[in-house]
Amino acid sequence: MKKLVPFAFAVILLISGCRGSDAPPNTVYSTEDLPGRLIGVLHRSSSARFAYEIGGGMLTFHSGDELLASLRTGRIDAALMEMRDAQTVASRASGVTILPEPLVEYDLRIAVARENAPLLDAVNSALAALDENGTLSGLYNRYFRGMDFTYQPPETAGIRPGNLTIAVPYYFPPYVFIGDYGERAGMDIAVARAVADIIGVEFEIIPIDTNSLITAVWFGHADLSLGFTPWDDGWDDAPVNFSNAYARSTQAIIVRR
User: Pick from 32, 75, 74: which is nearest to 55 by CA?
Assistant: First the structure.
């Protein structure tokens, strides 16, 4: 007669059998290990640009949980994510960790022509007001963390004559992307609108190539520009002036334990 296996023991065998498909060990221990690896990023995230520049391969995911599940099973070698999002999703996932050294960390600022000191002062005053009333943190939470936030224009919106031309990248989510109705939307578009409203003037968005954002202001084709990384890894050597920071970007690297 065939001997029956107790149900509880059979369940243990089934679970143990699944462990044969464990993911390979981690191979990414620092930023130097990323080139040539398959990197996962969230759909419409700023991390995609950095993953593309690293080289190798890239997969996009629509949720952090899906991304980290693929990391745990070895489908991807590492994940790139904004630090705040990385800390949130990694705290819910076992078998993954955030490397101590981020891939890149920098402030987001607005470029202004060197000869236009009054405009720089006006932009910095507007950013200070938007920071104090919670608009900047609300916009960051909306575009980076998916939280609800509705921008309320101040009474100063549109009360003064004039128009600011503001250059932004064609596509750099979540800073700039194409909205549901074909319009440009994103963190930088919202910040540009809020700054113009505080100053009290209308504004016009000029989408251009990312590499031309500084020169557009330098040569007078735009009054302001948003959506770039520091000039040669710094701010002091650029041919334009920069405002105070309106947000900070930290790209975290998530790997298997």
Answer: 32
Structure tokens at 67: 């991304």
Q: Is there a contact between 175 and 46 (Cβ–Cβ < 8 Å)?
A: yes
Where does residue 137 fall: left (phi above 0), alpha (psi -120 to 50 degrees), or beta otherwise?
A: alpha
Q: Residue 16's pLDDT is what?
A: 35
Query: Domain 110-234, what fold?
Result: D-Maltodextrin-Binding Protein; domain 2 (3.40.190)
Query: Which CATH class, in words, describes the domain spanning 23-105?
Result: alpha beta
Q: How many residues does the chain have?
A: 257
Q: What is the pLDDT of residue 173?
A: 79
Q: Measuring CA to CA, how many Å separate 243 from each of 138, 179, 252? A: 20, 27, 25
Tracing tokens 């990385």 back to the chain, one arrives at 86
- Phi and psi torsions of 28, nearest 5°: -115, 115
